[in-house]
Amino acid sequence: MITRERFPVPRLVVCDQHGSQVGSELNNAESHEPNLQEKWGVMIARFLLAKLNPSATYNNANEMAAGSDVIFTDDVSLQVFFEHLQRLAVQS
Question: Do residues 69 and 61 make contact, with C-beta atoms less than 8 angstroms apart?
């Protein structure tokens, strides 16, 4: 692998498009070198930590469905963005 010849070693993420969490090359390399993840900084698996709905606002508890959590983000909804643009256009 090219990453073994470079210094400092870049972080390598192996992604398999066919649904496996681990790429076939990494499987072969892991069988020869069990500490490959620590040695080369290879991420073996990817985990989905959160899934956000872009059409919903997550910063107001009154608008959320029962049983769902409030998620604090720096993003604003598209409606809030357009309202802000309209206010800026009227001011100018």
Answer: no
- C-alpha to C-alpha distance for 80 and 61, rounded to whole angstroms: 17
CA atoms within 13 A on the CB side of 17: 0
Distance CA 72, CA 40 (A): 34
14-68 tens-digit pLDDT: 665 555 544 455 555 545 555 655 555 555 555 555 666 666 555 555 666 666 6
CA distance 55 to 72: 15
Domains of the chain by residue range: 2-43, 61-91
SS3 13: strand
